[in-house]
Amino acid sequence: MGGVKAGQQSGRAKRLPRAERERQMTDAAVRVFGERGYRAASMDEIADLAGVSKPLVYLYLNSKEDLFTACIRREAAALVAAVRAGVRADAPADRQLWEGLTAFFSHTAEHPDGWAVLHSHARTGGEPFVAEVGAMRDEIVSFVTTLIAAAAREAHGDPELAEREVAGLAQALVGAAEALAGWANADPSVSAKEAATTMMNFAWSGLGSLMDGQRWSDRRP
């Protein structure tokens, strides 16, 4: 990891506003935590990559636990915002789901260290990290639940799917998307669009339709 030595930026770093300095440190922390994991990451390495002294990291961001929590919260908020921003409220139900999935896979591909922090390291780091990432997941599941409910209304004119069934489908869809993002990030040849199409084929078309050769397409007639 090619960090910049603290002394090389010390003069310039002193003139940075506090918010910018914290962003710089958090950027470095996300990269180190994403590559090393919470336990293996060192504050020395984070400080070195950020181009500041380790005492300054502690002064601004307190403990290693607090820093990791800040990384989880920032990356979670960015992911949720990206998914919500990617969906057009006036689009048909299948397009909304397609757009949300595409936004999800695009964001996780563009921010692999942030996704590693959320999907891998936070979940295995124990409390309070599990609770932090769980809150993010709950927000995404809630959003997907509204999309599935809208799809039921569009397809049938009435929300025929029971509320509990809609919630279960949302949980399954989000879980599958999380697993698929891990697979896609491990294979650079898999694009966000390909991953989203795979999910649409699985979730929208269904396994039965796939076996009959039917596939979902983002090219609507």
Q: What is the overall number of helices?
A: 10
Helix content estimate: over 70%
State the end-to-end distance: 49 Å
The overall strand count is 0
Q: What order do the SSEs take from the amino end to the carboxyl end, as H and E?
A: HHHHHHHHHH
Q: Which term fits the overall shape?
A: elongated
Could you describe the largest sheet, including whether it forms a barrel? none
Strand fraction equals under 5%
Q: If classified by CATH, what would the architecture of the largest domain be?
A: Orthogonal Bundle
What is CATH's topology name of the largest domain? Answer: Tetracycline Repressor, domain 2
Class from helix and strand fractions? mainly alpha
Q: How many domains make up the 3D coordinates?
A: 2
Give the averaged pLDDT, no decimals: 86
Identify the CATH homologous superfamily of the largest domain.
Tetracycline Repressor, domain 2
Q: Uncertain runs with pLDDT below 50, 5 residues or more?
A: 1-13
Q: Radius of gyration, rounded?
A: 20 Å
- Reading off the top of the CATH hierarchy, the class of the largest domain is best stated as Mainly Alpha
Protein name: TetR/AcrR family transcriptional regulator
Organism: Streptomyces citrinus
